[in-house]
């Protein structure tokens, strides 16, 4: 790790508004999903709170049943590049799929963002889980779950190989001698695999952080295994102690099996903190988030994780029946988590849909209560930080920054200033040595 003392890390979703119908809130511009000023405000709030990164979730498939926010929104590389110009420290993590795109294109886009931002890019590598997405990319459907991850693993190897096309000091740019680059330090990839054939090299030099930080969000067996092998950080849906502990132990065990150190991979569960002067006031704020969510909107959100399964055939106020393997090739781990939650807590379909559309969680209370819960889970060592999902954008972030951040700082577990100019540096992750430089160094030692 770059920094000797462990510190709490925070990120937040780069979202125009919260909840499926958050655009209806009086304080939110109706066109917030494509209003860049709104995104700038979220980014400003993140830097105000000294957050490590903005997390841009994305998908490339919509239907008439999609929630409003998804119907028209910015593509990740575009909006993150624009934000790079108006931010200084916060990391810029974008979602790019491994299922229906070329690894060279993704490698170039992210390397460009990394250089453009001075070393602040991150990649949320996903396999794409919506059934209809394949039909937008010349396929009849998405690949089955296991095949998606076989493709993804090779895709990641290709991208990481391309990011090592140039050694750190390859670009000499010596005006006196006329040497622009040391071409001995340029390397082709010459990859020929099961799914991809890529020559390289990449036409983009390395950034100050070496290469973009890799995030992964899969919770299935294949997803966790891929994360343990190559990811620097993982986005998790587990913020309760029991599930978070199980997830942590499983992931760290897998990472060690790949020869990695436990601290090489960071875990970030999602939480929705809502603070009030009293517990009652915080609860009232949560209830207000439900005012803009009718049951039809909540069911829309739920359906997305189950291949747009029609839940309308079931009674709203009765426990959810056994759904078998619905969702097995879509958001597999998330669908399984929601079904397990419904079974364990005996939730009705209405209760589950509202819980998914506007999760309350354990981080609703006074600033002291929220800070205590964050510190307790972080000090247990099972998480490294949190991805905040604001109940109201950006007001919820400002409230958290004003009332909770100072408590965490006073306790000495959260930064009072950014430690680095790069995302990797602020996360405390090691600088990745270029594989060709490493080989050169090993050769010189043994010669």
UniProtKB/TrEMBL annotation:
Species assigned in the record: Cohnella fermenti
Protein family membership: Belongs to the NtaA/SnaA/DszA monooxygenase family.
Domain (Luciferase-like) ranges: 34-382
Protein name (record): LLM class flavin-dependent oxidoreductase
Binding annotation for FMN: 58, 95, 145, 149, 220
Lineage per the UniProt record: Bacteria, Bacillati, Bacillota, Bacilli, Bacillales
Entry keywords, A to Z: Flavoprotein, FMN, Monooxygenase, Oxidoreductase
A Pfam family assignment: Bac_luciferase
Domain of life according to the entry: Bacteria
């Amino acid at each position: 790790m770059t920094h000797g003392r462990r510190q709490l890390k925070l990120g937040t979703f780069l979202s125009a508004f919260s909840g499926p119908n958050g655009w209806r809130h009086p304080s939110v511009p109706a066109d917030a999903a494509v209003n860049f000023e709104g995104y700038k405000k979220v980014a400003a709030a993140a830097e105000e709170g000294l957050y490590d990164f903005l997390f841009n979730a994305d998908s490339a498939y919509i239907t008439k049943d999609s929630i409003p926010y998804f119907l028209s929104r910015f593509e990740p590389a575009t909006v993150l590049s624009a934000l790079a110009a108006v931010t200084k420290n916060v990391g810029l993590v974008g979602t790019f799929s491994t299922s229906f795109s070329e690894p060279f294109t993704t490698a170039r886009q992210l390397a460009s963002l990394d250089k453009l931002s001075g070393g602040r890019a991150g990649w949320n590598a996903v396999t794409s889980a919506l059934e209809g997405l394949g039909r937008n990319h010349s396929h009849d459907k998405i690949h089955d779950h296991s095949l998606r991850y076989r493709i993804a693993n090779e895709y990641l190897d290709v991208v990481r190989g391309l990011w090592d096309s140039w050694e750190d000091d390859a670009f000499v740019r010596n005006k006196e001698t006329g040497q622009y680059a040391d071409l001995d330090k340029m390397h082709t990839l010459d990859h020929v695999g099961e799914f991809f054939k890529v020559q390289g090299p990449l036409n983009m030099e390395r950034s100050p952080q070496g290469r973009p930080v890799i995030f992964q969000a899969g919770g299935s067996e294949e997803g966790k295994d891929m994360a343990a092998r190559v990811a620097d950080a993982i986005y998790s849906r587990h913020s309760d102690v029991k599930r978070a502990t199980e997830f942590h132990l499983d992931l760290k065990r897998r990472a060690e099996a790949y020869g990695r150190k436990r601290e090489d991979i960071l875990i970030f569960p999602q939480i929705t903190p809502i603070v009030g002067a009293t517990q009652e006031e915080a609860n009232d704020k949560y209830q207000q988030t439900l005012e803009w969510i009718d049951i039809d909107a909540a069911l829309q959100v739920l359906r997305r994780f189950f291949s747009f399964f029609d839940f309308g055939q079931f009674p709203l106020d009765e426990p959810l029946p056994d759904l078998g393997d619905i969702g097995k090739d879509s958001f597999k781990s998330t669908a399984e988590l929601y079904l397990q939650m419904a079974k364990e807590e005996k939730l009705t379909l209405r209760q589950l849909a509202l819980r998914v559309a506007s999760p309350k969680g354990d981080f609703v209370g006074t600033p002291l209560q929220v800070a205590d819960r964050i510190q307790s889970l972080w000090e247990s060592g099972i998480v490294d930080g949190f991805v905040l999902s604001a109940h109201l954008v950006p007001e919820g972030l400002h409230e958290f920054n004003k009332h909770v951040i100072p408590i965490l700082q006073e306790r000495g577990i959260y930064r009072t200033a950014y430690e680095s100019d790069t995302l990797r540096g602020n996360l405390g992750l090691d600088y990745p040595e270029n594989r060709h430089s490493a080989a050169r160094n090993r050769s010189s030692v043994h010669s």
